[in-house]
Design brief:
The chain has about 270 residues and is mostly helical. The protein has one domain (about 20-255). It is about 70% helix and about 0% strand. It has helices at about 20-45, 50-60, 80-105, 115-150, 165-180, 185-190, 200-205, 205-220, 225-250, 260. It is flat.
C-alpha cells in the first residue's frame, strides 16, 4: 500500500498582516475612492455643470408636462441643493468602477484562487446590472409612467412638480430598479453558498413571480405601467440567475485535495 500524500500547503499561508497594517491599507483605499469621486464631481461641475445635469434628469418629466409648464422650487435653497445632490450622485456613478476596484484590491489578498474566480465576476456583473437597471428606468420607464400619469390629469389642473419631490421620486425609482436587476446576483450567491439548490430555485419559480409583483406594487407608484416594468424584468432575471448559478457552481468550486483524488492501492 502506498503512503498517503500530505495535504497541499495552504496558498494563503504566510500572507497574514498585522491588524494596524490592515487599517492603514483600508484608509488608503478609502482615500483613493473618495479622491476618484471628488475628481468626477469637479469634472462634472465644470462640464456640463449642476444645472444642466438636473435638466437632463428632469427631461423625461418635462417632455410630458403641459405646454409652458415647468418644475418649481418651494424652498429657498432648493435651486442650489438639488442640482448639487444630483452632481454628487452622478460623480459617484462615474467613479463606481474605481470604488469597486479599491474594495476588490482590499479583500482579494485574503481570498483563495477559487474564491477570486467567484468574487471578481460578481463585483463586475453586479455593477453592470445596477447601471443597466438605472438606464432602463430612465430611458423607458420614466417616459411611460409620466405619459400614463398625465393622461389622467384633469384639464383644470396645471402640473408643476416640486424639484425636491421629483429628485426623491427619481432616486427611489433608480434604487428600486437598480436593486431589482441584482436578482441574478442574489440567486447565484445563494446557490453557490449552498443555501438553496438549483432544484429548489426552479420549484420556487411560481412563488417568485407573485413576490415580484408584490414588491413592484410596494416600491413603484400606483400605476400598472411601472409595476409591470419592474415585475416582468425581475421574473426574467430570476431565470437568468438560475442559468448563471449552474455555471458559477461548476467553475468556482474549491479544488479537490490530493487525498480525495488519489485512491489507495490494494
Amino acid at each position: 500500500m502506498s503512503d498517503t500524500p500530505k495535504s497541499p500547503e495552504d496558498e494563503l499561508a504566510g500572507t497574514e498582516q498585522p491588524f494596524v497594517q490592515h487599517l492603514m491599507e483600508l484608509r488608503d483605499r478609502l482615500v483613493k475612492a473618495t479622491l476618484a469621486i471628488a475628481i468626477a464631481a469637479v469634472a462634472l461641475g465644470l462640464y456640463p455643470g449642476p444645472g444642466p445635469l438636473y435638466d437632463i434628469l428632469a427631461a423625461p418629466l418635462v417632455a410630458h408636462l403641459p405646454a409652458g409648464a415647468t418644475l418649481i422650487a418651494t424652498s429657498v435653497i432648493s435651486p442650489f441643493l438639488v442640482p448639487l445632490k444630483i452632481l454628487l450622485m452622478a460623480a459617484f456613478l462615474i467613479a463606481l468602477p474605481v470604488v469597486l476596484y479599491q474594495v476588490w484590491a482590499f479583500v482579494a489578498p485574503g481570498l483563495y484562487s477559487h474564491e477570486k474566480k467567484l468574487v471578481l465576476p460578481l463585483v463586475v456583473s453586479s455593477t453592470v446590472l445596477f447601471l443597466v437597471g438605472v438606464a432602463f428606468c430612465y430611458y423607458f420607464v420614466f417616459g411611460q409612467v409620466f405619459q400614463f400619469i398625465q393622461s389622467f390629469a384633469p384639464k383644470s389642473i396645471t402640473a408643476a412638480p416640486d424639484i425636491e419631490a421629483y429628485l426623491s421620486f427619481v432616486l427611489t425609482m433608480f434604487l428600486a430598479f437598480g436593486l431589482a436587476f441584482e436578482v441574478p446576483i442574489v440567486v447565484v450567491v445563494l446557490a453557490r453558498m449552498g443555501v438553496v439548490t438549483i432544484e429548489k430555485l426552479k420549484a420556487f419559480r411560481s412563488y417568485f413571480v407573485v413576490l415580484a409583483f408584490i414588491i413592484a406594487a410596494i416600491v413603484t407608484p400606483p400605476d400598472v405601467v411601472s409595476q409591470l416594468a419592474l415585475a416582468i424584468p425581475m421574473c426574467l432575471l430570476y431565470e437568468v440567475g438560475i442559468w448563471a448559478a449552474r455555471i458559477f457552481i461548476k467553475h468556482t468550486q474549491a479544488p479537490a485535495t490530493d487525498e480525495a483524488k488519489e485512491e489507495v492501492a490494494p
